[in-house]
Each structure stands twice: as structure tokens, then as C-alpha cells.
Design a protein that fits this description.
The structure is a homodimer of 260-residue chains.
Chain A lengths: L28 H19 L4 E2 L1 H8 L3 H10 L4 E2 L3 E3 H12 L5 E6 L3 H7 L2 H5 L2 E8 L8 E2 L2 E5 L3 H8 L3 E4 L3 H13 L4 E4 L12 E4 L2 H18 L17 E3 L3 E2 L3
Chain B binds a DNA duplex (30 and 30 nucleotides) through α1 and α3.
DNA sequence: TCGATTTTGTGAATGCCTTCACAAGGGCGT
DNA sequence: ACGCCCTTGTGAAGGCATTCACAAAATCGA
């Protein structure tokens, strides 16, 4: 899955990438997912005035091991300096560029229930490369209201809004039974990337990427492991940390559905 | 510093398959993550009165291919009937049991900002095996208020609440700079599974599981793929003029400030 | 009873990711 | 200049996960 065989990707802006002919730098999906984490860690370092960082400490800050970090960075042809480490500012630029975050990306948010409103107000979007540029809901009572500086539009105007703002990324936070319909309309209007919070599988054509966040599923996965723990070492209240076999798992939301 | 529990798993890694008496099997992590999806799909089928389902149609409903589904189910020793399919009710039970969802699990929710309040009201938790049994926030103005039938408690009482309700699973929805502290206290109070919405890496001892949901990271991953698509040729559907050039440099340069 | 048909369960093959381990490169002190 | 030490970058190895493909059930109709 994960369709998208990528070919040429010009757009190298900051540092010149050695664009070796025939070397289509294909970056593993798992690596891409971690780049976002590295970026976050780098931002933290920069704020603390740290200008250079070793793979070891960056890896620790990002919660991975250093071999993995180095392998990941090697995929984007990054420039570390042996014996020294990585330049924080340079690496930040490299990753931002790789992720396509160099100018803020316009995002549409559909559905302004509790979750939608929380997302609308989430500062992390703005600070990390995204600008919510359209708020859409189906409730007539909400339409016209102003939220975070934007006017809420009716879902009837969805296509028009998406087209006029040239939006490629949308966030779906509508009730589960409306999700597929909204999705279809977004896709028809030209959206190519969707972040889905509705607990349902969305059907999309193969050129559209869908990522999902299923909150209850996350808890269920935790529940599974918790269940196991309870069964294995019979209890042991928070006193001693049995550091034996299983390491703590640190996992991310997964799933990249690329459609049929 | 910042010890990383990942440790070099020099110790037996594959050898920790301690099969406890009973039906303990080892289930791949990737499979566990999908079980939650299957469960959701099964619930949908049951609601439509469907009593039996083939691996093929269940797979379609869950957005995976049927071979993967069957392999997954084989790990939990499920009983499908050859030539017929799976009994929806039976399979539902099997998965619920595997995930440890047989009785509702108590969950504590820490942080009642916009996101926290949205989570508190999320019906999907209750309907899928979880009961939020404690709401905690640091804002004195909120403490004592009633939200969704629960009284908001002050974070000072965190340990006491967690212990008295015997809570093993917690959801962290506090600002990023408070997250590690809250995490430490939860762990000390006996919590063994954490779902983290704060955009930071949490440090925990090895017996604790952390899953994280990083909303901005999800968008960034989409951004990466979208970037790749745009760089290719436009295969613009119908009329939509997907601006070929990535140009349009408005350079909003709003730097990065820590989210919260 | 038997053969046709359907669909599961699973070894085997393949491919992706992670981890290992070390040579190559670069700075720094003397 | 010259070693010494540090850290990167990366082949190679090893583990998981996915997919393939087919034999083994199980039902049904005649």
C-alpha cells in the first residue's frame, strides 16, 4: 500500500542536495514518521540555545536509539560532522524541507464538535507548519460564528471553499456517519491528504492519503498490554520496577491507508 | 542523562515469550493494533444484523487485505468455519477478551483544556470498553466543577485518586511543560499504561507502556507525501487547478514557539 | 455418499525495518 | 604535524510483517 511511487522531486531549496541522477531518494515510511519527532526535539534544543547535537543525545531526546536516528538521517542525505554531531539549525531546515513545511500549509477542518473545536484551537498546528484556513460544519446554528479568527462556513460550501483556498490537506472531525460523505466531497474538490478522526475506514481513490487517529483503539491497545502485565507478574503495586524481559513500549499511531 | 529505557536489549529478547498457563499466546504488535479495528468493524456488522462474515468482507470493512486478516486472527486461535466464515458475535468476544475489554476499564484523564474536555465527552471511550473515572486539572477555577457526571479534582490529589480508584490507564492532555511531571506522578501512583497527547517524549520505567498521539506530527507526515505528489505531474481531477509551482512564497515566517 | 464449491488456516517466500559493528572522517591537544 | 579520540555513515545480519498460494475443512445439492 502506501501507493505513491515517487519520482523526481526537484524543490531543493536550502542546502544544495547532491541530486545524483538516478538516485531518487526514497525515504522509508517509518523514517518519515520519525522525522516529525526529530523536528520536535530539535526545536526544543534550539530554544535552549543548543547549536550542535550528537546523534546520541538527539536520539535520546526523541526516544529512539542512535543507530536508528543516524540511519534515518542518512536517508535524507543530511550532513553531520564526524566527531562533532549535527548542526541543529541546519538539520532542522533539512527536515522541514523534506517534510514540505517550508511555507505554512493550508488545512481545512471539517466538523466543529468538541473535538473539532479543540483542534481548531490547537496551537501546535500553527507552530509546526500548518495554518487552518477553513472551518466547516453542518450545524446552521454555528455557521457564521467566528472562531479563532475564522468564520465558520456551512458544509454546503465545502467544495467552493476548498477550491478557492486551494486546500490539499483536510482534517475530518465529523460524526462517524457523515465521515465518508464528507470525505468523498473533499476528494472530489481536490483534497489529496486527509487526517481522519472519525472511527471508520474511509474509502478513497489511490492518489489520496489517509491517516487516521482512533482514540479508543489507542486505549484498547494499551489495554491489551496491561492485561498481559496483570496476568504475568501477579500484581506488585508500584514499588519495584521489574526490569526483566519486556522493555516499555513506546509506540506511535500507525496506519497509513492508501486506498484500494 | 535522560535515561532511555530502550536499553540495549542485550538480554534475551526473543526469549521472553513466557507462556503462562492458560491460553496465553504471543501476538505480534502489528496484529494487536489491528484487532481494535476489526472490533470496530465487527460492531458495525452486528448492528446491521449480520451474524456471519467471511474474511474477505470483514477485511474490506476494516481496510486490510484478507490474508492479513486471517493471519491476524490465527494468532488468537480463533475459530472460523471453513467454507462459511466467522461468527460475528463469537469473534467479537474473542477479540474483546484478547484485548482485555471484558469489564470496563477505569481511566483517568489529566488536563481539561480544550482537548481534555473533548476527550472527556468522547462517546467512543464508553462504548468501546472504557470508563473515565477521574478528571484532574491544575486550574483551581475548574476544580469542583462537574463535567460529564464527574467532579473535577485538583492535580494535588492525583496520587490519592489514582490509588483509591485503582486506575491503571491514564490519558495525559496537559501542556507540554507539565507532561513529564504528571507522568512521573502517575507512574509513582501505580499507573502502568499512558496515552500521551502532549507533544513530548515521556520518560518512564520499563514496566510502563506509553502510546502517543501527536497531532501535528500526523499532519507533517501527510505533508511529506503531499509534497511528493505535487512535485510530480499534475493529474488534476477534472477542473481543479492544482497549482503546479510550489512557489507562492508568502513566507509567513512565524518561527516556532513551543506548543501548548 | 460424493463431488463441487467455498473459505479458512498456514508454510514458505519476500520485503521492510531495526540493530549491529566498524571503517572512515574530522577536530583537538600537544 | 601528528596521533588520539570522538562521532558519523553504512554494509551486513537478523527480525518482523506482509503476501502468496494451496491443502484442508465444511456445506450443499443431487
Amino acid at each position: 500500500m502506501t501507493a505513491q511511487r515517487d519520482e523526481l522531486n526537484a524543490v531543493s531549496d536550502t542546502a544544495d542536495q547532491r541530486v545524483v541522477p538516478g538516485t531518487e531518494r526514497t525515504i522509508p515510511e517509518a523514517t518519515v514518521a520519525r522525522l516529525a519527532i526529530y523536528l520536535r526535539a530539535l526545536t526544543g534544543l534550539a530554544e535552549r540555545g543548543i547549536g550542535t547535537v550528537s546523534s546520541d543525545s538527539l536520539a535520546t531526546a526523541a526516544g529512539v536509539n542512535s543507530a536508528k536516528l543516524r540511519k534515518d538521517l542518512s536517508h535524507l542525505g543530511s550532513y553531520g560532522v564526524r566527531g562533532v554531531g549535527y548542526d541543529v539549525a541546519l538539520l532542522t531546515d533539512q527536515i522541514r524541507s523534506t517534510l514540505g513545511l517550508n511555507e505554512n500549509r493550508a488545512v481545512a477542518l471539517i466538523g466543529l464538535g468538541h473535538l473539532g473545536q479543540a483542534l481548531a484551537g490547537y496551537a501546535g498546528f500553527a507552530s509546526r507548519g500548518f495554518r487552518i484556513s477553513a472551518l466547516i460544519d453542518a450545524d446552521p446554528a454555528m455557521v457564521g460564528d467566528r472562531l479563532r479568527g475564522l468564520i465558520i462556513q456551512h458544509v454546503d460550501a465545502l467544495e467552493q471553499v476548498v477550491r478557492s483556498e486551494n486546500i490539499a490537506i483536510a482534517v475530518i472531525a465529523v460524526p462517524v456517519n457523515a465521515a465518508q460523505d464528507v470525505c468523498d466531497r473533499l476528494v472530489a474538490a481536490g483534497v489529496t491528504s486527509i487526517l481522519n478522526f472519525a472511527p471508520t475506514v474511509l474509502n478513497v481513490p489511490s492518489h489520496v492519503d489517509v491517516r487516521k487517529v482512533d482514540l479508543a483503539a489507542e486505549l484498547q491497545i494499551l489495554s491489551f498490554h496491561d492485561n498481559r502485565k496483570g496476568a504475568r507478574q501477579d500484581f506488585a503495586p508500584a514499588s519495584v520496577a521489574r526490569v526483566g524481559a519486556v522493555g516499555s513500549r513506546l509506540t506511535t499511531t500507525d496506519s497509513m491507508v492508501a486506498a484500494t
